Amino acid sequence: MTKVEVSASKAYQVLVGAGLLDQAGERVRAVTKAETAVVVAGDRVAPLYGERAAASLRAAGFRVLLHRIPHGESAKSLAGYGALLGFLAENRVHRGDVLIALGGGVTGDLTGFAASTYQRGMDFVQIPTTLLAAVDSSVGGKTAIDLPTGKNQVGTFYQPALVLCDPETLDTLPEEEFRCGCAEVIKYGVLGDARFFGSLAQTPIREQLEQVITHCVEMKRDIVAQDEYDRGLRQLLNLGHSVGHAVEACSGFTVLHGQAVAVGMAVITRAAYEKGLCFRNTLDALLEMLERYRLPTRTDYGLEELSAAMLADKKLSGGLLRLIVPREIGQCDIVPTPVEELRGWLRAGGIR
């Protein structure tokens, strides 16, 4: 097991290691005096891991409740948020209790947002069961739900009390979902560690899960420590996301988040090459890595569809969208881009 200490508005640990799911009770008990633990899990994850988590929590003395949510992005809605709050109120859960997000990024975002707002705030714990959530969304304190007008439009910065990453829970992850997590892993290499990026070609991610998860968490920890509230450096973590979120929206969220981020990275890096901001070998290295992990590098959505969706991006401010642009593998820049130039970037990235 490895341990990563995160220092933010709330200090907490991220633990990475096999068997942590069955230790959840004792680990959660160490960070809270709660009487009740509410496990929030998707309808696919709950049958796999819900009872194991609940049994461990009961053994540690918690009263355990399970709230199931639908799988997929639709759970991160005002209706889903209201249903969770209603469940908490009906079961007399109070602010001294603890919420536990058992699942992927959607579950973590919804649970974290509920924890940050229910009775003005209560503890929550992340137990990610997807690679994407383990390496990225479970750490750093971003919580959110969607509005009909766009993704993650309502949310808070609210750090968890603890994160438990058990790589064994990834054994049941569908291959397509696992590859989505690989997109986020690749993102970290492009952002700030060329050696790490190279290692992903030498050794498959699945064969070095604990090391990969730990390394990505450490990279994110270092960025969050410098910019917890996403006003500067942390924006680098949005590499591929501006275009990616637009692809998700255009698809009605049938394109998975990691797939969309892969497309977004490819589009922006093609545009960077066409604009003379990076060399061909940078673009080739990224495309080769995405293809190695069987991730998409193109989309069928057109210029008008994607540019319209990008204008709903919450990162749009003062008529500028901050694009994250690779200069080389291991180095990216934040490029404030006027909205009237977005179509030019998309065209340069191969969107017609």
Describe this structure in words.
The chain is α/β, with parallel strands linked by helices. It has 2 domains: 2-172, Rossmann fold (3-Layer(aba) Sandwich); 175-348, Dehydroquinate synthase-like, alpha domain (Up-down Bundle), CATH 1.20.1090.10. Helix content is 44%, strand content 21%. The chain is built from 13 helices and 12 strands. Strands 1-2-9-6-5-3-4 form a 7-stranded mixed β-sheet, with helices on both faces. Strands 10-11-12 form a 3-stranded antiparallel β-sheet. A hairpin with a 2-residue loop joins strand 7 (142-147) and strand 8 (150-157). The longest helix is centred in the middle third of the chain and has 18 residues, at 175-192. It is globular and about 60 Å long. The mean pLDDT is 97.
TL;DR of this structure?
The protein is an alpha/beta fold. It is 44% helix and 21% strand.
List keywords for this structure.
single chain; 352 residues; alpha/beta; Rossmann fold; Dehydroquinate synthase-like, alpha domain; 2 domains; 7-stranded mixed beta sheet; 3-stranded antiparallel beta sheet
